[in-house]
Structures are given as structure tokens and as C-alpha cells.
Amino acid sequence: MNEKQPTFTVTDKRKFTLDGELRDESASEPTDERPAAPVSTNVVTMPAPENRETETPEEASGEAELPQFSAQETAEQDAAYKESSRQIDDMLRQTNPGMGVGGAISFEHVIQSFYVSAMIAMGAGTEPGQKARVDILGARQSIDMLALLQEKTKGNLTQKEEATLQNVLFELRMMFLEITNAIAQQAQKAVDAKMK
To answer: Long-range contacts: 131-138, Cβ < 8 Å, 24+?
Structure first.
């Protein structure tokens, strides 16, 4: 039986090119049509942790302790995670031949993740012409987590990491103050308008 292999269409909907330039509208048309990649059936499994007591006295009283895993269990879990990640990377490289190898995660990546979360919560990245949606509590939480990171890593960071964290916190706190001051001014104007 001669069956036609299923195909899929790749449509690039990114607004910017890899060089950071704005794409023209015609660039969002389908860019590639190729047969669907066969699905890999490699599955990475990790052993289940040893059986533990079903309920400890601490759990019964509501003060549960976190389970402690052995060094062997932790090593097996880590190896299974790395193997699974390697397989995903291999599949991505098969379907995207131009894709490079991903770099290792650094402390700067952690800082950047919280920074982006805080900025988006404060309305950055809003589409032109749309009203910014501000999540001031979410922004404060991201800023507070960065401050906690700064406190808990004191003395363990390189000079560059420490400077990056300090600069990011300064910028986010200043933006937070600007937004909260604007919110307070709007609230005061609303109160003044009601008083008249």
C-alpha cells in the first residue's frame, strides 16, 4: 500500500529577524513544507524511589518534613534527566538542522528570567496601541525573589554576577516606584474629583 507521508507547514510568525530587525508582513507566509519527522519512541525512565513509610508522626501533626533521597536516587534521577534532555535536543536538531547547541545555564540566566518576569508584570512588552496591563503584585514578587537571591548568595557570586544583580534590582525598583507613584496620583485625582 502506497501511503502519502503526512506533511506540515512551518509559518514563521516572529516579528523580528534573527538580526533584531523588524520583519515585513510578507515574511509571515509559510516558509517551508516538508514531511513530518517520524516520532521517536525512545523513552527515558528513572527508577522509582524506595518505598517510604506512608505517614510519619510529623505528617500526622501537620508538620511534614520533606522526603530525603539517597545519593544513589539523586544520581539516577539526574542521569535520567540529562539523558531525556539530550534526546530532546537531538530531536530538535534533526527537525531544525541550523539550530546550534544550547549553552549551559548560568546565574545571569536566572537573573534575566526574574528580570523579564518583573518587566512584563509592569507592562513592558505591550503591543503598540494597546493599553499596558500591569500586575503590580506579580512585579513586586519577582523583585522580592531577586532580593532574596541577592541576600542568600552574598559572598558566593563573582564580581560580574553581583554587579548584574545589583543593577537589575536598582532598575526594577525604580520602575516599580514610578508605577506605584503613578497609581497613587491617579487614585488621588479620583478622590479629588469625587470631593468636588
So the answer is: 134/179, 136/176, 136/179, 136/180, 136/183
